[in-house]
Amino acid sequence: MIKKSLITLSLITGCFFAPIKNATAQTTSDSKMNAKVDEILAEMTIEEKIGQLNLLNPGGGVATGAVVSDNVQQKIKDGEVGGLFGVAGPDKIRIAQDYAVNDTRLGIPLLIGSDVIHGYKTTFPIPLGTSASWDLEMIKKTAQIAAQEATADGINWNFSPMVDIARDPRWGRIAEGAGEDPYLGSQIAKAMVEGYQGDDLTKENTMIATVKHFALYGASEAGRDYNTTDMSRVKMFNEYLPPYKAAIDAGAASVMSSFNDVDGVPATGNKWLLTDLLRDRWGFDGFVTSDYTSLNEMIAHGMGDLQDVSALALKAGLDMDMVGEGFLKTLKKSLDEGKVTEEEITTAARRILEAKYKLGLFEDPYKYLDENRPEKDILSEESRAFSRKVAAHSFVLLKKDARVLPLQKNAKIALVGPLANNKNNMLGTWAPTGDPQLSIPVLEGIKNVAPKAKISYAQGANITDDKQFAENINVFGPRAEISETSPEKMLEEALKVAKKSDVIVAVVGEASEMSGEAASRTNLLIPESQKKMIRELAKLGKPMALVLMSGRPLNISEESELNVDILQVWHPGVEAGNAIADVIFGDYNPSGKITASWPRNVGQVPVYYSMKRTGRPGEAEGFEKFKSEFLDVDNSPLYPFGYGLSYTDFEYSDIKASSEDLTMDGTITLSATITNTGEHDGEEVVQLYIHDKVRSITPPMKQLIGFEKMMLKKGESKTVTFEVSADDLKFYNSSLEHVAEAGEFEFFIAGSSDNEFKNTFTLKE
Ligand code: BGC
């Protein structure tokens, strides 16, 4: 059967210089908002305006810095607070909102923020995992469910999506984003904003999305968190900025500035970034918050004292100060001394009031505080079932040559490994609103899905034997506990259960807090305690599958040499064990594709598919002197971007263009036939890559410009077509103009970035 599917590329075609909105787009609701906000501003004292710029965290939740706000109650009553975060539940938030509404002179309600990064109580896989599904509708729905649940608990402003491009797996926060590619990252950014905000922010189940961390946070040097970033404008515009812009074009109503500096000025006080680029060129009309105390941290960056950095940030375009209270403590003084203007303060206050208006808080400050909603809207059976589905779709089959998976449901299985019967690590990093105790461990999931399987379980190893390392990752509670049983004894138990079983499933990898914020690693190996167990089990020569959990690409060069199957499952969320069982027993055939390349070793980092060729390309295997290569390892990653296997096999053929030429105002159709040649039905993520052979700035070797996920039954063929126009071939030239240049383009359509170009077309003047 030949089924034709058509997708039209909607690349990030908007020019970085053209404001998105024009004057005629002003709607009646805009003018109503302006009238309301003008009316309030006219009543406000300068202190009340400054109060709106202050965002506090009363504590009790996760504090990601050294400071937690004090005396919050009194500050709200004194009109010194514009918003809170780190509080949840209609009852608690009602108390805070009451102070704001009833005890302040003007009764302005509070914004209530939260970090809902991958689900609220229904935790989904970590974002890096979800991105591996390449399923935009599914990703959007995760954001909708997150909004449904968070708003039921009183939240109206979310600190997500994180859209930072990350090409350095040493950086722990790679877990929170969509990986290395600007095109895929942009599509996902858009889907998430649409999911959180819906088409109407006044609805009670939508919330403001925050694009973070603006900008370039993922490029911190050496992957060390909060570290300096420095890059050319051309690289920024082509490779790092597109996802932020895509989120803003999708209507994100707020932006969070990042901790790092950009061109030598911390993002939080960077006028080029927060005003020239964000507002003047991109037309952003929402509000900008700092990150957690990132305003005060400009003191440590070397930008002056609290008064200096607060004035700098306000003038740069920052509207809200998270936890730092620099605005609160110094702006009045700066105004009196002529260091800032009243207009600058009013502009920032206006933006905060506009956000409150957009949410409908002036009409009803209590609209998110319906006590009946949490019970009804949070952690429903449907949402949990959906989380299970998303998790299964996020898993990536990295290796299948041992052909151990899928398992028979009546198999005699040795289930081993420190993550095999564990709840504390299933949710993954940055899941402060989730409850690890509600998560399904792998052992339980297997029993649910395959009640007839004969399972013997042994922990086999600690996550790590290193006490100091364990302590460093246990800051939010026990994630890597060191057992009282000796490592030798644990290994002995694992070998014992393995010997009496037909197949070994080892669930290994990183604890959840080995990735995430302030969780950078210089060593990307599975911890040695577990590597040792894997080696010893492999020596038994029994069929063996590794179920690998991590928040980042790891260096698994050693394990990839073993005769085992490897299924990468990230940190899968609240339904972890059920989803893993669905996939290892073949109820769902894995279809995920990695969105950040996996290095052969840490010395290769950064390694990403869209690297430039250099003048001395070193693309072949093996070493050649005077080429851009390493003496000891090939340039290619162990597993490239876009890679992921299936229990079935797919073959690509007939990769062609509808014509040899494309005109500047025309379109061309690029197509391929995909056939499921294996023994299972399965889904495939079909990817389109181009290479601009000659252009005015050096091109990347490959560039993703389209993809489509499709289901193919066993034996089925489908033709996929991509309609491409000159817009899809655009890049930022050295004058930062968004242009497509005439010339020849190579392309291929495949199931991974690691493929040869198959055909060409020419873009004509
Ligand atoms: C993180 C942000 C987060 C904020 C508030 C910071 O440390 O960088 O991503 O939104 O804390 O919790």
TrEMBL record:
Taxonomic path: Bacteria, Pseudomonadati, Bacteroidota, Flavobacteriia, Flavobacteriales
Xref: SMART domains: Fn3_like
Molecular function as annotated in GO: beta-glucosidase activity
Uppermost EC category: hydrolase
Domain of life (superkingdom): Bacteria
Reactions catalysed according to its record: Hydrolysis of terminal, non-reducing beta-D-glucosyl residues with release of beta-D-glucose
Name of the protein described by the UniProt record: beta-glucosidase
Signal peptide (UniProt feature, chain positions): 1-25
Organism: Zunongwangia endophytica
EC code: 3.2.1.21
Key words of the record: Glycosidase, Hydrolase, Signal
Family membership noted in the UniProt record: Belongs to the glycosyl hydrolase 3 family.
PROSITE patterns membership: PROKAR_LIPOPROTEIN (PS51257)
SUPFAM superfamilies named among the record's database cross-references: (Trans)glycosidases, Beta-D-glucan exohydrolase, C-terminal domain
Record has Signal as a keyword: yes
Chain ranges of the Fibronectin type III-like domain: 684-753
The keyword Signal is assigned to this record: yes
